[in-house]
Amino acid sequence: MFLRPQFPTTPHLPAAAEHGQPPACSCHPAPARRPVLPPATTGAVAAVLVGGVVLTALLAAVAVTAVSVAAAALVLRSLLASGHRR
Q1: pTM passes above 0.70
Q2: 24 contacts: CB under 8 Å, gap ≥ 6
């Protein structure tokens, strides 16, 4: 009662629409149909999965390289700074 949702009533369509007859006026074009996609084959799915794994591995390699270069830069900066102090 109190917490039950109230659904709006649906308007009754004219009898012509119920029997599959075209509408009385043709001023509105028919809606465009979406193209039907071909079913995915096993080879296509495997190619997408392998491509995703390869791209993920490349991204991980770039990230590890960037961290290594940053660490080497910090070590070199520390060594050069300590050399100027002495």
Answers
A1: no
A2: 16
